[in-house]
Amino acid sequence: MNEYLSPLWISLKTVLVTTAITFVLGIAAARWMSRYKGKFKPVIDGAFILPLVLPPTVVGFGLLLSMGKHGWIGKFLALFHTSVVFSWPATVIAAAVMSFPLMYMTTRGAFEQVDINIEDAARTLGAGEWKVLYSVTLPMAWPGVLAGTILSFARSLGEFGATLMLAGNIPGKTTTIPVAIYFAIVDGNMKEADILIIIVLCIALASLALLAYLKKPKPRDRGLIAANTVSSDILSAGRKGDTRPG
Amino acid sequence: MLKVEINRTLSGFKLDVAFSVNGEVLGILGPSGSGKTMTLLCIAGLIHPDKGFIQLNDRVLFDSSRKVNLPPKDRNVGFVFQNYALFPHLSAGKNIAYGIRNRSREEVNHRVQVLIKNMDLDGLQNRYPQQLSAGQQQRVAVARALAPEPEILLLDEPFSALDSLTKEQLEMQILDLRQFYKGHIILVTHDLAEAYRLSSRIAVYDAGKIAQCDLKEKLISSPVNQKVARITRFRNFMDGVITDIKDKQVSVTVPGLGTNVRVAANGHRNLALNQHITLGVRSEHIQSVTSPGQNTFQGILSSSVENLASINCYFDLKTNSDNCYRLEAAFPKAVAPSLSDGMSYYLYLPPEQMVIITN
Question: How far is C-alpha B86 from the chain's CA centre?
């Protein structure tokens, strides 16, 4: 069983850590760029999206160069006697770099749709930038943020090219499900490949179901309401403390 | 007391205004793009003037010379946006409670209840903004802005999205607001009648500058220039030269008209003989009379438009030169003469109701 469980466990760990990282970094970058008006906007924007348009192997090769023994990040890490290449963190780095553009683009689009007057209204009501972000911008842009999170989750689950370049195929250490599938097929081990494929299908369908559940209509959407259905609103449930002092 | 002196230059537009508000409702009146909303955004700190000074009561909110610039959250300014900008993900009650800080839960609830009662929003507390009518949304927006007890309330065209019946009701509500809100209020509008009903003083904006800022009665009785006169609904203008000044009665020669026009000086002190001036007359002040006399001129009716309570008529005055004067007169239906196009009528211009515009 270990040949199935080990890639599954590594993939799950990688995907969860990666999704958490891209969630935070993607929101931060999207927040910054959605209101940034400087002349470097197209350049920064392009740099953020670059991994999406490059072949994953090229991105992986670039990461390998910069993090390897002679790369600038590699040299910096060597000062602390560590190296990330061909280790488990490399699977996270590769997946994070590849899935970041999806989180960033989707979230930025959602942030730009938020009426700036509504954010300004929060400011005149005494909200600082953090409060504006978590109490107005994020809830209003939530469907987009959610879509970006699911997309980047799926992208990092399927990440293959860059992962293989940067993390390699070390069973029990860096072999994620997509890498394991590839090598199982190459080795003619069809039974192992089939089972891994079924596992991936289950995860993919489960995440789609989760997305559908989280996007179910809210009582605040147009139409009749029962005044007390509000508490079932998953969005307001997370924000019950809003009216308290603070 | 709010003191404002702001200067902001954009490509093709320059805002340069100075005024103060003290415990009253100041109306800012002007056409679109004259800098009204920008002024409010500067006071709230949502945009920054290039140069200037803004003081609210004893606090300096902005001072370019001393590099003071409080962020919006620390200004204690209530802002009602033109589109209300309610939080769509929060119920009406939570919208109102959003800005109340440093209070216990009971105090917050109490304050929300008081505002809901004052703004006539009973029973709507748990509704989301999309489930409210435009008028209800506007009242939630006002309640939300008042909840943190701001020192000044800024209203940006609060009635522009409403039908006329709702608008009238809400205007009454804004007037009633004075009973429980004692701070300063600035109302931005492009509607003279609205500004006149709701405010005590009116600042007329024109292309980023204040053309005139006066008590509303003074503003409509003595506009300083033709722009202000047009914005305050003077429809008829005639250029002329002063030929006689006697006992606050001024005689003005208007080229082409056979007799001089008599007009009351109405507070003008610096009029001089031979001075070139413009006469302004409101359409509703022109009267139709049956016989010739002083200040009475013959006009041919060229067209007329029937309104709800009055008839707007366009007359071409008979002149003895190439000058032509088209007068717009609004006769109440009850006293309107029988009208037919092409007929000649005697039109009386009351000396007390005309204004002299000196520049």
Answer: 26
ipTM: 0.86
d(CA A200, CA A153): 12
pLDDT tens profile A55-88: 999 999 999 999 988 899 999 998 988 889 999 9
Dist CA A150 CA A194 (whole Å):
24
What is the helix (H) or strand (E) element at residue A65, kind and residue range?
Answer: helix A56-67
Q: Inter-axis angle of helices B164-177 and B134-146, to 10 degrees?
A: 20
Q: How far apart are CA B203 and CA B232, in angstroms?
A: 11
- In sequence order, the 6+-apart residues with CB closer than 8 A to the CB of A108 are A29, A30, A33, A34
For residues B327 and B286, the answer to whether their CB atoms sit within 8 Å is: yes
Sheet holding B276-281, edge to edge: B261-264, B249-253, B236-246, B276-281, B355-357
- Token pair 């909110």: residue: B61
Q: Which residues of A touch B (CB under 8 A)?
A: 115, 117-118, 120-128, 135-136, 139-140, 142, 219-222, 225, 227-228, 230, 235-236, 242-246
Subunit contact B104:A122, Cβ cutoff 8 A: no
Strands (E), B160-285: 184-189, 201-206, 209-215, 236-246, 249-253, 261-264, 276-281
Per DSSP, A245 falls in state -
Q: Which of B41, B87, B95, B137 to mutate to test the interface with A (most CBs of A within 10 A)?
A: B87
Tell me the nearest-neighbour CA distance from A116 into chain B, angstroms: 9
Neighbours of B169 (CB within 10 A): 12
In angstroms, rounded to a whole number, what is the distance separating the alpha carbons of residues A186 and A211? 34
Max Cα separation, chain A? 65
Distance to chain B for A39, nearest Cα, Å:
17
Nearest to B126 by CA among B100, B166, B94: B94
Chain B residues lying within 8 Å of A230, measured CB to CB: 91, 126
Which residues in chain B touch residue A143, judged by CB atoms under 8 angstroms apart? none
Each residue's pLDDT, cut to its tens digit, for chain B (359 residues) gives 999 999 999 988 999 999 999 999 999 999 988 999 999 999 999 999 999 999 999 999 999 999 999 999 999 999 999 999 999 999 999 999 999 988 999 999 999 999 999 999 999 999 999 999 999 999 999 999 999 999 999 999 988 878 888 888 889 888 888 888 989 999 999 999 999 999 999 999 999 999 999 999 999 888 999 999 999 999 999 999 999 998 888 999 998 888 899 998 877 878 889 999 999 999 999 999 988 888 999 999 999 999 888 999 999 998 888 888 999 999 998 877 788 888 899 999 999 989 999 87
CA distances from A149 to A158, A169, A174, B179 (A): 14, 27, 23, 50
Q: How many CA atoms lie within 13 A of B312 on its CB side?
A: 10
